Amino acid sequence: MVTMGDVARLAGVSKMTVSNVVNNRTGVSEPVRRRVLEVIAESGYHLNLSARTLKSGRTGVIGLAVPEVDRPYFGMLAARVIEHAARRGFHVAIEQTGAVIAGEVEAIAQSHNLQLDGLILSAVVLDPRQHQVTDGSIPIVMLGERDFGAAFDHVAMPNEEGTRAATEHLINRGCRRIAFVTGDDLEGVNVVASRRRGYAAALAERGLKADPALLVTSPVMTLESGRTAVHRLVGAGAEFDGVVAVTDTVAQGVLRGLADHGLACPRQVRLVGFDDIPESKYLVPSLTTVAPDHGWMAEMAVRLVVERMADPARPTAEYVAPFDIIARESTR
Amino acid sequence: MVTMGDVARLAGVSKMTVSNVVNNRTGVSEPVRRRVLEVIAESGYHLNLSARTLKSGRTGVIGLAVPEVDRPYFGMLAARVIEHAARRGFHVAIEQTGAVIAGEVEAIAQSHNLQLDGLILSAVVLDPRQHQVTDGSIPIVMLGERDFGAAFDHVAMPNEEGTRAATEHLINRGCRRIAFVTGDDLEGVNVVASRRRGYAAALAERGLKADPALLVTSPVMTLESGRTAVHRLVGAGAEFDGVVAVTDTVAQGVLRGLADHGLACPRQVRLVGFDDIPESKYLVPSLTTVAPDHGWMAEMAVRLVVERMADPARPTAEYVAPFDIIARESTR
DNA sequence: TTGTATGCGTTATCAA
DNA sequence: TTGATAACGCATACAA
After folding, report:
1. Domains A59-157+293-321 and A159-291+326-331 agree in fold
2. Cis omega before residue A31 (within 30°)?
3. So what's the pLDDT on residue B65?
């Protein structure tokens, strides 16, 4: 391997001069700079980032911990975060937490070992009331789901507002018996609880009764759980003319479940999701959904991490992403 | 920051002994080991990976370059690669190439700077005949798409075999006018060309004519391009009773396009995709598809990278993933 | 404008 | 079984 010293020797200068050239610092005469760059090109020299890191204590790597990158929503998030991080000169190492508490705790713990400069954690199960996760050694930004109070910077989804708007949208379309298909952690501080509050609030506002038979929960929020939810509703003889799904992925499963029972959407049952994943527009019927501004969220998360690196003492901030209701065929 | 030296001092031993304990090496007496571990726990010491890297020249990071992580297929791939790499003690840094040649070349070039121990490159546009990409400084495994001959280890998709089987499946179901919806780089050494060969081979084998009007190409392979392809077929007055889509994502777009024109699938047009992304099972109608073994591919790619680290001289190998045809509603 | 000395935290080598 | 020393490649401080 060719080192900075080799380049210095070949160019007939000192290591320091090479370092200055490599780092684009001033104070190097033009002829010397050219000579050094020549030698670098010829020799195939590459700066050793580990050595620089050892000196500076910074790796230039931001961790992104998500449940699984192959869930559409988190894949989308990862793509945006990688983009915005690159724009600021950072690389992204992805950790998969598996949506289990141990995985999310581990992601924080590992951030030391991995020498991350910062961590963006999309926690979905970690409960701030039950787990002491205050780390403090590197900037951690909580993304999207759980609210850890003022302990961390937090970029939140418009969970409650979004679901309320979605539910209102169904009501405006004439639905009166609206089911809510979601996860089962209704008590915690989490996306499931917040979105359900929005659903309940909209019903209450419009004077509709929240029928417990129309609340279908399951431990996971997947395509399969959405499908199964419909099977359960129909199996229990529940009457419903609208469904609010906790995510687009679940909604897609619901669509499948409706098809299994020959229920036409939107004619017999209208459906609305949450996230606006890329596929939603192409489903048959295309899916009405709550569309938070994902690019905005990713950019903000990266920005908060980077800014906190510069100023660790800054008070934590909480941002809620803007959103739109995208009306499509599933609620026509 | 607490260093190995600090731990050594606190434990009353040498740095080397601490290192031996941290690395689980033999030759440390039990009492000393316990004492050191105690101090480590108390002091909150964490091994500095950069320093280790500086010594060893290894980072423990494998790069994974994919077009975009938010495409379902590549998200799936990334998830599997991360899993298998973790199993072998490696972390994964994801690069997004944007499916452009410059991005793919850049990924290789950057692998130096990022101090990657290896690179898994899912190239989709880089053409081995036109670009000199032989690097040699770190192990590079080509994944899935393009064939670089013996220059790199290669884990291939069963492109030709898969599409042939898919096309045969349609013929067996009674289709006689089968369209192929794909990308437009039909000449290169790539997934588009191979899959088309499989399509053509199946038609030829069964004595069906390949009507050029039924070959619909577009520069990209997306949900939108699938949808548009159907619009173009119908707009041109083409008659077709089956569609082979180059990927499941494109197939999903095709499904949408069929719906736009009131064409019933599978009654009027049968459809088959390629990849078996998680969503395919839940589409309405559920999608018949060629299902390569993605876990197998990811595992093999990681294995090849890691093995080549150990033995850079080993001749390159080529593996083709096994696959199944999953018959679902879209070809019922 | 350029060079020298020193140290970042770890590990390999060799000696004790 | 343990310890001392010398690197790894770079950047900081300071001297020339």
Report:
1. yes
2. no
3. 94
For the whole prediction, is pTM greater than 0.85? yes
Contact yes or no for B256 and A68 at CB 8 A: no
Q: Which amino acid is at A90?
A: F
The whole-number mean pLDDT for each consecutive block of 10 residues of chain B, a chain of 332 residues, reads 90 92 90 93 89 88 93 94 92 89 85 86 77 74 77 91 98 97 80 92 96 95 96 97 97 98 97 96 97 96 92 89 97 96
Interhelix angle A72-87/A294-310, rounded to 10 degrees, is: 50
Nucleotide nearest to B4 (CA to C1'): C9
**CATH no., domain B4-47:** 1.10.260.40
Using alpha carbons only, give the angle A249, A250, A254 rounded to the nearest 5 degrees: 120
CA distance A191 to B259: 34
Chain B residue nearest residue A51, CA to CA:
B54
B223 shares contact with chain A (CB less than 8 Å): yes
Structure tokens at B232: 């173009």
Task: Give tens-digit pLDDT for A221-244.
Answer: 999 999 999 999 999 999 999 999
CB B46 within 8 A of CB B101: no
Tell me which chain B residues have a C-beta less than 8 angstroms from the C-beta of A252.
279, 282
Report the DSSP beta bridge partners of residue B180: B215, B244
Q: What stretches of chain B show up as alpha helix (H) in DSSP? A: 4-11, 15-22, 30-43, 49-56, 72-87, 101-113, 159-172, 191-205, 223-235, 248-260, 294-310
Phi-psi region of B109 (alpha: psi -120 to 50; beta: other; left: phi over 0): alpha
| Ranges of each domain in chain B | 4-47, 59-157+293-321, 159-291+326-331
Q: What is the distance in angstroms between the Cα of A209 and the nearest Cα belonging to chain B?
A: 31
> Which residue bears the tokens 């003690």?
B89
Cα–Cα distances in Å, from B82 out to A70, A78, B61, B79, B215?
Answer: 11, 14, 11, 5, 37
Contacts of B75 in chain A (CB under 8 A): 69-72, 75, 78
| CATH number at B59-157+293-321 | 3.40.50.2300
Helix spans in A114-213 (H): 159-172, 191-205
CA-wise closest residue to A133 among A107, A105, A96:
A105
> Which option is the CATH number for A159-291+326-331: 3.40.30.10, 3.40.50.2300, 3.40.50.10950, 3.40.50.300?
3.40.50.2300
* B115 → closest Cβ in A49, A71, A256: A49
